[in-house]
Design brief:
This protein has two domains: 4-167, Rossmann fold, CATH 3.40.50.1970; 170-354, Dehydroquinate synthase-like, alpha domain. Helix content is 48%, strand content 17%. It has helices spanning 14-27, 39-44, 46-52, 73-85, 100-112, 126-132, 170-187, 189-195, 203-223, 238-249, 259-276, 282-295, 303-312, 343-354, and strands at 4-5, 10-13, 32-38, 59-64, 92-98, 119-123, 137-142, 145-152, 157-160, 325-329, 335-340. The chain has a four-stranded parallel β-sheet. Strands 1-2-9 form a three-stranded mixed β-sheet. Its cofactor is Zn(2+); NAD(+); Co(2+). Residues 62-174 form the 3-dehydroquinate synthase N-terminal domain. Its EC number is 4.2.3.4. It is an enzyme of class 4 (lyase).
Length: 355
């Protein structure tokens, strides 16, 4: 499978990925390798990765606890401290081996340690492959609020290998599918139509679908790397999705949601906003709701919960001049950015979803 050329780096797949990884490590003049994992990827992904890793350089493993609750500046401090303790210099190579938490946090750690050391992202979850590891965004959460601290920084390369997905739990696979559905709804309606029926899904199909999703995201990012304009298309489902995710993250009485699970709910809600704005038909809205509801379980929210989610919208990074901006969709697989929506419309969307 051919590489995908991103902004100043490439996304490589499977065997070619490991070949290019070896070349970068051999030719980069690096002093040492640091591999960031979490408690899951240490067990399930690290042995396979080390088996394929060809290098004469010494390396150290840095393990963090898994889960979104650990995507914090405190965890970064711990990783920075380990790097300092092991005398990592500016020619150290940092490899993030894991899902979205590891690749987001790892990129941020590398981009800030000694004002920036080279890093490579090796996503091991479907979500990280099609979303988190592509596009140059790094960062951590702040007090349960999603991705409030971070910066844009590109890796030396991204290595995507579907073999990492063999041990991935079903809910994590579904989480990644949410972003793939989003890519179809905002940029390629034929892709959405292809994803609607996964009954004859194979591993070969999955690799091609991942490739297509990365291509869609990469093409948007190349046009707008710093999210000044059309990159905001990728935020469909995320304005309300992030608010719902943050609310669950900060509430000890309810279970946390995976990112993709929250985004799927956000897409249903924001599809309803698109319907209320007259951008899509009721038929298309019902199709979106039906497809996503069949995969992602419905959550229960009280009126009080909804208003708490609404209060979290003020922290959304897409806000400008005090306005909450939404990305909505059209019927033909296009997105509309910077859409203002009334509180009444948002409550209507929640009410319809919960009905």
């Amino acid at each position: 499978m051919n590489e995908i050329q991103a902004e100043n780096y490439s996304v490589f797949f499977a065997e070619k990925g490991f070949e290019n990884l070896s070349q970068i490590l051999a030719n980069g003049g690096y002093s040492k390798i640091f591999i960031l994992t979490d408690s899951n990827t240490t067990e399930y992904c690290l042995p396979y990765f080390l088996q394929r890793l060809e290098t004469t350089l010494a390396f150290e493993i840095i393990e963090i606890e898994d889960g979104e609750v650990n995507k914090t500046i405190e965890t970064c401090f711990e990783v920075w401290s380990v790097l300092s303790e092991y005398e990592a210099d500016r020619k150290a190579m940092f490899i993030s081996l894991g899902g979205g938490v590891v690749t987001d946090l790892g990129g941020f750690v590398a981009a800030t340690y000694k004002r920036g050391i080279d890093f490579i992202s090796v996503p091991t979850t479907l979500l990280a492959m099609v979303d988190a590891s592509v596009g140059g965004k790094t960062g951590v959460d702040l007090g349960g609020l999603k991705n409030q601290v971070g910066l844009f920084a590109n890796p030396q390369m991204v290595l995507v290998d579907v073999n990492f997905l063999e041990t991935l739990p079903g809910n994590e696979m579904r989480s990644g599918l949410a972003e793939m559905y989003k890519h179809g709804l905002i940029a390629d309606i034929s892709y959405w139509n292809r994803l609607k029926d996964l009954s004859n899904f194979t591993t070969n199909d999955l690799e091609l679908l991942i490739y297509h999703s990365i291509t869609i995201k990469n093409n948007i990012v190349l046009e707008d790397p710093k999210e000044k304009n059309i990159r905001k298309k990728l935020n469909f489902g995320h304005t309300l999705g992030h608010a719902i995710e943050s609310y669950h993250l900060n509430n000890d009485e309810i279970s946390t949601l995976l990112h993709g699970e929250a985004v799927a709910i956000g897409m249903i809600l924001e599809s309803n906003l698109s319907l209320q704005k007259g951008y899509i038909s009721e038929l298309f809205y019902n199709e979106i709701k039906s497809v996503l509801s069949a995969i992602f379980p419905q959550i229960q929210l009280s009126e009080k919960d909804i208003h708490k989610c609404l209060r979290l919208l003020v922290h959304d990074k897409k806000n400008e001049l005090g306005c909450v901006n939404f990305t909505l969709i059209k019927e033909n697989g296009e997105a509309i950015i910077n859409e203002e929506v009334s509180t009444e419309m948002i409550i209507n969307a929640f009410t319809e979803y919960l009905s």
